[in-house]
Amino acid sequence: MGFRVWPDVGARDEIRYALAWRQQPGSLAGLPNLRAILVMGAGVDGVLRDPELPASVAVLRLLDAGMAVPMAEYALHALLHFHRRMPDYLAQRRESKWQPLPWSLVADWPVGVLGLGVIGSVIAQRIAAMGYPIAAWVAQERASDDIQIFAGRSRFDEFLARSRVIVNVLPLTPQTENILDARAFAAMPRGGYVINIGRGAHVNDEDLITALDAGQLAGAMLDVFREEPLPPAHALWRHPKIIVTPHIAAPTIVDTAEQQIIANIERLERGEMPIGLVSRERGY
Ligand code: GLV
Predict the structure, then answer these.
(1) What pTM did the predictor assign?
(2) I need a surface site. Which of 78, 114, 122, 123 has the fewest CB within 10 A?
(3) How far is CA 79 from CA 141, 162, 211, 221, in A?
(4) Residue nearest to ligand 1 atom 5, measured at CA
(5) What does the pLDDT read at residue 144?
(6) Ligand 1: which of 202, 222, 223, 252 to mutate, judged by most atoms within 8 Å of the beta carbon?
(7) Ligand 1: which atom is nearest the Cα of residue 40?
(8) Which portions of the chain are predicted below pLDDT 50?
(9) Does the C-beta of 42 come closer than 6 Å to ligand 1?
(10) Residues 182-231 pLDDT 10s
(11) Is residue 112 in contact with ligand 1, taking CB distance under 6 Å?
C-alpha cells in the first residue's frame, strides 16, 4: 500500500484511506475511492466540522490507544493539587510563609466525571481507587456496576450539585458545546473546581472567569482551549486561579495509534467491522 502526504496526493482516485486530524476543510473531498477516514486522535470534532467531509465514508477514531492512562494521570494530578491545597502552599511559598492549613479527607471531595467512554471510564476507576466518591454524567442512559451514573440533561444539575470537582472528557458536539457555563457552575457546590481535558469549547470562558472571581469556583486546570495555541494575551493565561497546560494531558502515542490504525485498515480490507466507528449523527 502506498502512502501520500497531503497536499501531494497524486491521482485522487488512488486514495482509499485517509489519516486525518483537524484537516483543512475540503481536503478530503473529491476522493472517489475513499473508504475510511482514520482520525489520529480520540476526539473527532476537528474532523467532522469540515462542511465538505464526504457523507458516506466511515470515520474511525482512536479508542484509548494508550491515551486513557495519561488522561487519568492528568486528572488525578489536578485533583490532588486542589485537594491537597497546592495553590495555597505555592502562594505561601512566595512569601516564605510556613503555615500548615486545614486538611480534608477524600470523602469530602466528591468527583464528577463528564463523559464515560473508554477514557472517562479509566479516569473514573482510577479516581475511585484513590477513595474519592465518584459519579459520572452521560448523555444516554446506561448501566454501570461500580460508578454512580447520572444520565441526560434532566439529571445534570443533580450531578453537578454532588460534585465538588468536575473532570470533563465529553466529546464536543452541538449538544455539549458550552455545557460548562454560568448555569452549570452555579449548580455546583460553592468553592468547586473544574478540570477540563475534553475540548475548550465545552467551557464558556467568560462564565468560568466570572465564577472564579465570585468565589463560586475555587480553581480550574485547563488543558484544552477554543483557540490553540491559547493566544498570549488571553485572560485565561493570567487568571491566578487557573492553571493552563498546552493540550498535553495525553499526546497521541505514535506506536499504539499506528497499530490500531493498521489493524483497522486490515479489518476493512477483510470486510470486517472496524473499531471506533463514529456515528455522524451523534458526533462521536
Ligand atoms: C486529543 O485531543 C484527542 O482527541 O485525541
Answers:
(1) 0.96
(2) 122
(3) 27, 16, 19, 9
(4) 41
(5) 87
(6) 252
(7) 5
(8) none
(9) yes
(10) 999 999 999 999 999 999 999 999 999 999 999 999 999 999 999 999 99
(11) no
Closest CA to 167 of 125, 211, 108: 125
Cell of 182: 454560568
Is the CB of residue 119 below 6 angstroms from any atom belonging to ligand 1? no
Residue 43 Cα to ligand 1 midpoint, Å, equals 5
pLDDT, mean over the chain: 97
Q: Which atom of ligand 1 is nearest to the CA of 252?
A: 5
Q: What is the pLDDT of residue 251?
A: 87
Residues with catalytic roles: 199, 247
Res 228: pLDDT: 97
Residues 6+ apart with CB under 8 A from 110: 132, 133, 134, 135, 162, 163, 164, 165
- Give the 3-state secondary structure of residue 166: strand
d(CA 192, CA 185): 8
Nearest-atom number in ligand 1 for the CA of 247 is: 2
